[in-house]
Amino acid sequence: MTDDNNKANTVTASPQTVAEFLRENPGFFNEHPELLEQLQIPHPSGEAVSLVERQMSLLREQNARTRQKLDNLIDIARANEELARRMHMLALTLMDAQQPQEIFNTLYDSLRKNFAADFVTVCLFSEAAGLEEAIPAEFAGEETQGMTLFKSVIAGGTPQCGALEAAQWSYLFGDAGETIASGVIVPLHGDSWGGVMAIGSCDAERFHPGMGVELLSNLGEILSIILKPWVALR
Fold first, then answer.
1. What is the four-CA torsion angle of 164, 166, 168, 169, rounded to 10 degrees?
2. I need a labelling partner for 128 at 20 to 30 A (CA). Which of 19, 35, 50, 114 fits?
3. Which stretches are annotated as coiled coil (predicted)?
4. Residue 99's Cα: distance from chain center in Å?
């Protein structure tokens, strides 16, 4: 009878009930620490380990992931710092240039060497001022095709990144535009003129819509100011 009574008085809790109890009583194992060593938790290796060992293993994995994320953030910060330094040096070099063609050549060389640009060009939708001969091809004049293709970019005032329109690349780079997989178009502008600086890459992942464009925006503003004396105002 005694065994039967004990069995009758025994209540078997479902796993859901136990789980709910532990969620509602997170300090349970603080009051019963002896249970931690008795519990056996399956480990991915197939071996059984105590709850404490399993928790320590999880904490080590979480710490490793946290360290990895921190290392990645540090690497990104260092890369951005180096990029900002190069942009600063480029701006100083551009301001020291004496003629438009020198400005363009300096810009192109720097972007190709220091910023992994496969293609780069500037297109100004204006006539040149103060130049009687050897006018750079970057001065496209006040024609309508280019202004139509890039009107929204110039009006928006913000660089556009990613897989841009084929017609835009074709206009800027001719047949070579077909090899561009990603790029960025930076607006240039003054009081009565507009233009673009375009950077293209054969790598589809090099430029994407989610990337930061602050430094490129700053470069566009600086370049616009540097070119202003050479742009004919309407």
1. 90
2. 114
3. 49-76
4. 34
**Token digits for 120?**
């780069």
Question: Token digits for 67?
Answer: 């360290």
Q: What is the pLDDT of residues 28-51, one digit of tens each?
A: 777 776 676 666 656 555 555 556
- DSSP bridge pairs for 158: none
Give the neighbor-by-neighbor strand order of the sheet with 182-189: 119-124, 194-201, 182-189, 160-162
180 CB neighbour count, 10 Å cutoff: 26
Is 184 in contact with 199 (CB distance < 8 Å)?
Answer: yes
Q: Which two tokens stand for residue 74?
A: 């540090």
The pTM assigned to this predicted structure is 0.67
As a whole number, mean pLDDT of residues 219-227 equals 93
Coil vs helix vs strand at 115: coil
- Please give the Cα distance from 108 to 102 (Å, whole number): 10
Whether the CB-CB separation of 206 and 116 falls below 8 Å is answered with: yes
For residue range 89-128, list pLDDT tens digits in order. 888 888 888 889 999 999 999 999 887 789 999 999 988 8
* Rounded Cα distance, 151 and 14, in Å: 67
Q: Whole-angstrom Cα distance, residue 129 to residue 227?
A: 10
* C-alpha Rg value of the chain to the nearest Å: 32
